[in-house]
Design a protein that fits this description.
Elements: E1 3-6, E2 20-23, E3 27-34, H1 49-65, E4 74-82, H2 89-103, E5 111-116, E6 126-134
Parallel strand pairs: 4-5
Antiparallel strand pairs: 1-2, 3-6, 4-6
Helix pairs in contact: 1-2
Length: 135
Amino acid sequence: MAITLVNPSGLPEIDVYRQVSIATGSKLVFVAGQVAWDSDGVTVGEGDLSAQVEQCYLNIATALAGVGASFADVAKLTVHVVDWTPDKMPLLLEGISRAAAKLGETPLAPATLLGVAALDVPEHLVEIEATAIID
């Protein structure tokens, strides 16, 4: 495994991610922003942030598996949420939790959460991109 996740002393511990990832692998993997499309390009969970977050994480897992990687290899996630407000955090966490249960692993890589005005398709509420490191 090319990624070690840590919470250095002096920084707050966040339950849903680690503050720092240390990469030792030799290949960078950039996963394009994933939205809540199924394999047929149909939006999953229209109007349901949790369902869309879950689908985004499942899509990232599929992309990673396609190149021999998993969430254990993810160094950084960037999450874009339409019309973000802090009261949406439980919905975001629920989607991550549901995806983690299906995947059998909890994505803990450092993450940046950004509120955006809109995404490519009006039905999309979230888009998540990943950077991974593999040997």
